[in-house]
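Please complete every field before forwarding. Incomplete forms are returned to the sender.

SECTION A: IDENTIFIERS
Entry label: holo-346
Bound molecule: NAP
Molecule representation: SMILES string

SECTION B: INPUTS
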Amino acid sequence: MEKISSVLENADPFKTWWPTIAAVIVGIIVTIRSLMGGQRCPNDNQIKDRIAIITGSNSGVGYQIAKALAARGGRVILACRNMEAADKAVATIKRKLNNANSNEDESNSKHKLFVEARYLDLRSLDSVCRFARKILAEFERVDILINNAGVIFDKTGFKTVDGFEQHLQINYLSHFLLTHLLIPHLQKSFMGRVINVSSHAHASAKMDIDDPLHLGTYASKFHARDAFAHSKLAVLLSTRSLAKALKGTSVTVNCCTPGLVRGTSHLKNSPLMSAFCIKVMTFPWMWLFMKNPFEGAQCAVYLATDQQLKDISGEYFKCDGALPLKFDKRLQYYSILRTWSEYGTS
Ligand SMILES: NC(=O)c1ccc[n+]([C@@H]2O[C@H](COP(=O)([O-])OP(=O)(O)OC[C@H]3O[C@@H](n4cnc5c(N)ncnc54)[C@H](OP(=O)(O)O)[C@@H]3O)[C@@H](O)[C@H]2O)c1
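SECTION C: PREDICTED COMPLEX
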């Protein structure tokens, strides 16, 4: 014991560089993590009794968005295809928020949580119509619609029941139809908001001028990564187009990217990430450079709740503000996308 205390007394941290090196490494890691984590939603606005629908919210980013909006008092509907997972997500959100509320003041804990799961399979336009019909019949209005569900690296070789390439239908066409069907209810809200979740990957999209929706040979011709990029560019372009069409109404339409998010099912079909050793090897890098699902949800929560955005429409957001569309020359495709809009609303 005496020996140990004399060693500690005589220890001179400046005799070696190791403590400094360790401190610098920790500092770099903390800085990278806080930069890569993006911004938190800058407000804590309550959205009491506002009705919010979030597609694909049984897991990942969508789940975190649903939880955040329910915590702010919203009436939240999880629109999901896997009802078992969706019911579990609802139960978890209620349990967590009830626990949090019971630690707060009495008035808060008296507020009854409204969180529900509804069936919606975006692979089928019929399912979208059924879902929309039920919402229109059961709710007096819709205040927030977050088109979050998405797939990547799904098989491009076969088509949905409606005859479309899967990425295109799930990520774009079905959301587009859903939005159009819900517009009458969104217009009943004093501040209706549509938020489309896109991706940085839109920048690498290939668009065929003769077949912009790739209804022809696209499915068999291209890699799933390209199909994803194409669908997310379509989301972006239709955001602008719909915002133009809704100008002068109480409804805004914006688009956001969650950034690169780890810990979700997004890459579950990725050929690379299915190898266990790759998962293990990339884990530290993903932890360092990617967001967690909570961080990935912040931008959509900001778009759904911030008062200052009430007149902003047709923009593409990262976590720190509106971004101009990089591919202005592609805006020529608006007219073609509007043709789909006519199809969707007929
Ligand atoms: N993670 C990233 O790095 C990243 C980057 C850029 C953009 N994004 C976008 O962010 C959004 C959320 O992604 P995430 O990372 O949270 O991925 P995720 O965990 O895979 O969540 C996607 C959600 O979409 C649902 N979904 C898939 N197909 C559906 C269908 N046919 N009908 C209804 N719901 C369906 C999934 O339900 P199941 O559980 O039933 O499959 C799941 O709940 C997606 O639009 C994605 O493209 C993510």
